[in-house]
Amino acid sequence: MGAKRVPVFACLITAPAVSAWAAAAAAATGEEVYRRTCAACHASGAAGAPKFGDKQAWSKLIKESQATLTADGYVGIRAMPPKGGDPNLGLEDFAKAVAYMARAAGADWKDPDAAAMKRIAAAVERAQARAAKATKK
After folding, report:
1. Residue 129, CA distances (Å) to 21, 64, 94, 133, 137 in order
2. What are the Cα distances from residue 20, in Å, to 15, 25, 31, 91, 107?
3. What are phi and psi of 44, to 5 degrees?
């Protein structure tokens, strides 16, 4: 019997490679997510988005709380599409980007830890319920 042949593509996608890619994707900083997704509107203020670093524009939003602001943005609010228009953006990375933008406007928000993510996830559920209710009217 000869040696078993393995298709070339099977050697290219290995579990360690996929794990490394997933870890790198999950390790995005708020600034990276901002630059990749949020800056499209928040750098210029397009569609009424509060401009990055504009303390006056962000002050009212910051007062809403980190969980509420993050949840509303994640679900989509006013002209902002859900997840900032990136359907593949996870909640944790989105939350880091919101914290990054809020810090640039004077908030003392930290990147969310596990406890903050639980509060944010609960706020997302409430925001989704409000959005569903509003579309039924």
Report:
1. 34, 18, 19, 6, 13
2. 9, 9, 21, 20, 33
3. -105, -15
> Residue 52 is encoded by which pair of tokens?
């990055």
| Structural domains of the chain sorted by starting position, each given as residue range(s) with its CATH number in brackets | 13-136 (1.10.760.10)
Q: 49, 80 in Cβ contact below 8 A?
A: yes
Threshold 0.90, pTM exceeds: no
In whole angstroms, give the CA distance from residue 105 to residue 99. 10
pLDDT tens for residues 16-46?
Answer: 444 444 444 556 999 999 999 999 999 999 9
CB contact at 8 A, 109 and 116? no
Contact of 101 with 34, CB cutoff 8 Å: yes
User: Is the CB of residue 67 less than 8 Å from the CB of residue 119?
Assistant: yes
- The reported pLDDT for the residue numbered 10 is 40
